[in-house]
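Appendix B: complex inputs.
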Amino acid sequence: MTYPVPIIYDGDPGHDDAIAMLLAKASDNIDVLAVTTCCGNQTIEKTTYNAQRVCTLIGLDVPIGMGQARPLLAQPMTAPNIHGQSGLDGPRLPEPEVGLSSLRAVALMAKTLQEAERPVTIVSTGPLTNTAALLLTHPELKAKIERISLMGGGIAHGNWTPAAEFNILVDPEAADIVFSSGIPIVMAGLDVTEQALIYEEDFDRIRALGGEIARVVAEWLDYFYQFHRSIGYIGAPLHDPCAVAYLIAPELFEFQDYYVRIDTHGEFTRGATVADINRQTGIAPNARCLTGIDRQGFVDLLAESVRRLSHG
Ligand code: RIB
Ligand code: CA
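Resulting structure:
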């Protein structure tokens, strides 16, 4: 008997976060217990408002916990150049019908873990501030966390600096706490997410499914595509959905298990995910690093997810 994977979804919506949330909601293999928000793509107020609007659009009626207003130590940084002033620019979205929990993110994560019948997977598609704060304040709940499937990092390169990917760079101290926690990690880094490219024919296919959700998703993809084309990409790299798609269809991915540690002090490399690919440290792997993807299968999963939410 296989059970759906219970997850806590932690993110900074964000266009690709929103699509990742949709994949999770649409899948019979996933049971979303709660949503928590973090500051990253935009301020915590904006990412939280966006999370409420996305949950309303996709019919995800679960507790939403507002996260921290800033990283553990670093100064806040946002990405309006990518996701816009709202953090989710582009199509008009419904006003929230899914309210905010009275609990903030970490307290909601803790309550969800305490009440869970089985260990829970944390899906993180933003900076790891909330997850790190949870581990610092509730070490007794580590046993209730089955694994952390995260979008972040990059073995070969960064995207915000030459060495660092945005989610890790926003809060490197949090990432260090998470990667050294001993909890199994699935790392959907740039190595795989920049292969998860979406092209115009893909979002035209989704738009043709018809209905509000299909229209909004197509417009999110088009918005994301136009930005990335403007900076030299040939398609839109769907970063965050990779962290969810692995839980739904791991057969779509190639991976290597590596020991990964976070550089928190480098003058030029702060926020880098340094993977021991030649096994020089003698330290056992702590992360399943996704390194390849069946792009067409990934796009098919996205299209099927939109179809399911739109037309049952
Ligand atoms: O570097 C890509 C990551 O940064 C994605 O999670 C995107 O949403 C932004 O948060
Ligand atoms: Ca994100």
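The domain at 5-311 is CATH 3.90.245.10 (Inosine-uridine Nucleoside N-ribohydrolase; Chain A).
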